Structure formats: C-alpha cells, structure tokens
Amino acid sequence: MKQIWTIAGRELRTFFDSLIAYIMLIAFLGFSGFFTWLYGADVFYVKQASLQSFFSIAYWTLFFFIPALTMRLFAEENRSGTIELLLTKPVTDWQVVVGKFLSTLILILIALALTLPYYITVANLGSIDNGAVWSGYLGLILMSGVYIAIGIFTSSVSNNQIVSYLLALFIGIFFQIIFSMLAGNFSGMIGEVLNYLSVSTHFDSMSRGVIDSKDLVYFLSIIFMGLIMTEANIEKKRL
Amino acid sequence: MDIVVENLTKKYGAQKAVDNISFKVKTGEILGFLGPNGAGKTTTMKIITTFLTPNDGNALVGNFSIKDDPESIRKNIGYLPENNPLYEDMPVIDYLRFVAELQQIDKSKINDRILEMVNLCGLEGEKHKKINELSKGYKQRVGLAQALIHNPEVLILDEPTSGLDPNQIVEIRELIKKIGREKTVILSSHILAEVEATCDRILIINKGKIVADGTAKELRKQSEGKEILRVKIEDGDKNEIFKALQEVSTVGTVDFIPNEENTFEIQSKPELSSRREIFKLCVDKKWVLTEMSFVETKLEDVFRNLTMN
User: Fold this and answer.
1) How far apart are CA A120 and CA B293, in angstroms?
2) Of A193, A198, B81, B121, which sits with the fewest C-beta atoms within 10 Å of its C-beta?
3) Considering B164, B196, B214, which residue would you say is the last residue of a domain?
C-alpha cells in the first residue's frame, strides 16, 4: 500500500509542478461555475434549490478534462523510457497502475471539493435535498473513476500522448452518450444491455438522489476492468 | 550475491536476440559485457533486472529466480538502463527521495542515504536543480545515484559512460571501481578500453551468443599464438624484399604497411619465430635492417576477429 501512495504522490506532485493541475482546476471551476450560475439552464433559470445544473455540466467537463490528465501517465513513461526504471523497482505492475489511478482521482476530488461553495450557496437560497447532492457528488466521483480507468488504459496503449487522449475520448464517448442513444433504437434484450452499459443511465439516477447497488456495481466493475486491462498491457511489454 | 544465467533465450518475433546464453558472475567481480550494437547485451541485462521475461531459461540473483521472486531481485539490484531515463521534471533531491521510498528504505534513514549519494556522486551543487537542467554527465551521476541509493548487492549498468567527456568517463570509471569492490557488477559497453580499464572479466557476445569469456589478458593470449613483427628494411627494392621475406621458412604472411616506405608486417607460422631468419636474410642480401618490433595483439583485434564472422 505504501508503494501505491509513493507512486500516487509523485504523480500528484507532477500534476501541480507542471501547472496541469492548476489549469485543470481553473478551467473546471470556470466552466462549471459559468453554466451553473450565469448561463443556460442555470440555477436561477430553473428556480429550484438544486445542483442538477451543476451536475449535468460537470458530467461533460469532466468527460473532456480527464483524458487530458491521464494521457501522460503511461505514454510519457513509455516514450522517455522511465517505465523501465519504474518496473525494475520493487513494485508490482498493479501497484503502479493503482498508484497512477489514485493520483488522478485525488486531483478530481480536489476539484470537486472546491465546488462545495456552490452547494453552500444554493443551500442558503432555498431548501435543498441534501441526499440528492451527496449522491450526485458520489456519482461524479464514480463516473470520473470510469473515465480515469479508460484514460489510463489508452495511455498504456501508446507512447504518444495525443493518441492516448483521442483514443480515450473515442472509447469514452460510447459510455458517455452513444450506448444510450443506441439503446433507444433497440428493444428487448439488446436495448437493455446497451442502456445498462451507458454511464449516463447510472449517473442520472444518482444525480437525482437514487443510489442503487446496481449502479455502484456498474461503476466499480468498469473501473476494475480498465485497471486490469492496463495491467495486462504492461505485462505484455515484458514479453 | 552471485548471478547465474542458465540457457537464457529471448526472441523478438522470429529473431533471437539472446540465444541460449549461460554464464556466472561471482560476488566482488566486475564483469564487462562486450559486443557490437544489437548483440543482445541490453536484452540480457533487461532480463536479469526482471524488466523482460525470457522465452526460455532462467537467471538467478543470489538465491532468487527471476521467475519466482522478481520482487526480491528488484530490491537487491541497482540498475542504470541504457540512455539513462529519468523523470526530467523533478528536482534531483525529490527524485532520489522517490526512488528511496520505492526501495522501502527506512524513513529515518532516507535523508542520510540521499546525502551520502549526493556526496558520493558529486551532486552537491546540483541537488536542488531540476534534472532537465543538468548536463549529460550530471544526469549520468543522478542515474548512478538512484541505482545505488538502497545499497544494492548487485549493480547492472548498461553503457554507463556513453556520451560523457573523457574526464567524466574517468571519474565514472573510478566510481564504479570503488563501489564494485564489495558488489557484483555487470557493465556493458562497446568501448574496449573502458571494459579493459574497469572489469575483472570480459564476456564477448555476438548475435546473441557468447563468443569469448575471460580476463583481458587471457583473451589476448588466445588470439596471440602467432608472432607478429613490424620490420623496416632499407637499401633494397621493396618488391624484391617482399619476395625474399615470403621465402623465409618460418614466415607465414607478409604485408606492406601502407604509406610507409619499405615497412612490412610479418606474421610467423604458429609457434615459430622469424627474427633471427630475417636478420640473417638482411646480412646475406646486404640490406640494412633499421627497425624490428613486436606488434602486440590489441583487444580490438580479438574483438573484431570474434565478432566479424
């Protein structure tokens, strides 16, 4: 476990040292703040004391930002050859993968923690459904986990960061929107499966305050799958 | 810790990078791994450091096998890969701390160890700089420092002096020699002088196979056997001299040395010496012998002989 934190800590420091973290935080807070408070279906337009508008904008901003954070994680190590140093230290491949996953997740947690003033402000404007807010935040964290896992996997595929960014978006867009769009065109079994595969199905119910174990299993299993596939990819490099 | 390599084979596709190699390195020995580019040096080292898994065969470091216990091997090995990859955006101290933590050094000892490495590798003035601000020589020292920080019993260094200037090369060599006294060291290079200067034993590898194994002296002896002389004979027609020399009974081959008047390289037949015969020949023909000297077989020649075919 200590090894995982050592790796996560180094990655996190790199995020902050290279300004990526600050740019990401400012852009995320800027976008989500703008659309939550000032423009479009914002809080004042909806006239409800709820964070629905924040959750739906964060859902999309995170979708685009997360691959930008993860694209470096393995691609850069592959390109510069530092992966060889890392993998000949007393760490397992799994520890490396999980360490990198956690570093990005922690950065997302920081970003989400910085939006808590939104919650406090809205709570002061009217009576808010606290349960829905917390389950919405949990939904954002879990869906971030899914895209981090996908991003890390695509980063381990290539040693070019742009390739891994685009590949992550390509795979991600299926979970984000395409599966649910397709689900509308199919009835019966296929429709249900596609619907179940879509992140939006699970996220929407969570952002409305419904936490179902089915949703948790979905998010956690996709995260786990992504990490396992990344580990397998690293294993493959040793052959 | 001894290193034992047994029947190691590694294929990249259909090509065998390492072909059924076996050798042993004893504790306290510095082994020089020599071979032309692409001979399989780096691949062998990557297998010993557990970065690559072999198709066949095994390697043992101490009692640990690369197959069953790679993590124990990694704890006991200090590795400097080819091209010395480093996290360029990290300051030297932070980087060393990161490696020390990965190597699970006691928290209370980490600072002391880092300072020791900084002193040993001469990084005092550079320790707070980012690695990408360092010159190549200093980067190499950081690479060595990270390989040594957990005081490993085995050191694997892949071309540790490539790209350094002559002063730095000497410094790094001294450092390796100093450290190598109590450790098992494998060092690869394609520079012969380097291997000769640092290593106790030399292993020459070509096309994935070991072609020679021994000390520099032994290797030189192997290809000696024949006496080679450099001879300068004046006061005669060079073609005539050439012919006469060839007819001497002990002489194997005669060559002109290019760009030098009347100078020849003479290789005697195995186990025979032609010095007296040549002198007599000159006296008979009234030529003047102005130079006669031994040509020592260079390690370069041994290397070329072994790796050219």
Assistant:
1) 95
2) A193
3) B214
> Measured between alpha carbons, how far is residue B219 from residues A156, A213, B187, B216 in Å?
45, 71, 18, 5
Residues B89 and B164 in one domain: yes
Q: What is the pLDDT of residue B270?
A: 72
Contact A90 B104 (CB under 8 A): yes
* Cβ <8 Å between A89 and B83: no
- Evaluate the CA torsion angle A49, A50, A51, A52 in order and state its sign: negative
pLDDT score, position A62: 93
Residue B93 and residue B114 in contact, taking contact as beta carbons nearer than 8 Å: yes
CATH number assigned to the domain comprising residue B64: 3.40.50.300
Within this chain, do residues B123 and B196 fall inside the same structural domain, yes or no?
yes
B41-57 pLDDT, tens digit per residue, is 899 999 999 999 999 99
Interface predicted TM-score (ipTM) of this complex, two decimals: 0.88
- The minimal CB distance from B71 to the residues A6, A85, A90 is found for A90
Query: What is the predicted pLDDT for the residue at A129?
Result: 86
Placement of tokens 């300051």 in the chain: B91
Contact A90 B94 (CB under 8 A): no
Determine the structural domain holding residue B257 and report its residue range.
223-308
B16 and B165 assigned to the same domain: yes
